[in-house]
């Protein structure tokens, strides 16, 4: 024998008489009349884009420093800044997969390598310009 998923319950409002003088309404398990849930519980999905389009990043999402890593790629220290770019992309991927600790760790490494690349690149550019100006005295 197979059990039914419907039952009868005494509910106020729209009821039908069952022959005994008491008001009952037949309902299915999934269709109980209940007050609507609070707005925060209506959907477990993402909120609308107007509610989440703020300038500040989400609280739980770590930074990946992708813009800094791309900027460091213009400096003449290519092995370091390419590795910084790779770490930044890995940080973004880890953050999208939900690994916040790994994303923070990889993001910090991307930031460190980007800063080192920018500083070393600036030193190399300044040394090159100063040596080229010193080597060619004005006549």
What does this protein look like?
Residues 1-21, 38-57 are annotated as: Disordered. This is TUSC5 protein. Its main location: membrane. Keywords: Membrane, Transmembrane, Transmembrane helix. The protein is mainly alpha-helical and 139 residues long. It is built from four helices and three strands. A three-stranded antiparallel beta sheet has the order 1-3-2, with no helix packed on it. A hairpin with a 5-residue loop joins strand 2 (16-17) and strand 3. Helix 2 packs antiparallel against helix 3 (78-97), helix 2 packs parallel to helix 4 (100-135) and helix 3 packs antiparallel against helix 4 (100-135). The protein is rod-shaped and about 60 Å long. Residues 40-56 have low confidence and may be disordered.
Element-level helix/strand string: EEEHHHH
The largest sheet, given as strand count, sense and whether it forms a barrel, is: 3 strands, antiparallel
Unreliable segments (pLDDT under 50, ≥5 consecutive)? 40-56
* Helical residues, percent: 40-55%
Strand content: 5-15%
Distance between the amino and carboxyl termini = 108 Å
Shape: rod-shaped
Structural class given helices, strands, pairing?
A: mainly alpha
Mean pLDDT: 75
- Strand line-up across the major sheet: 1-3-2
Radius of gyration: 32 Å
Number of strands: 3
Helical region count? 4
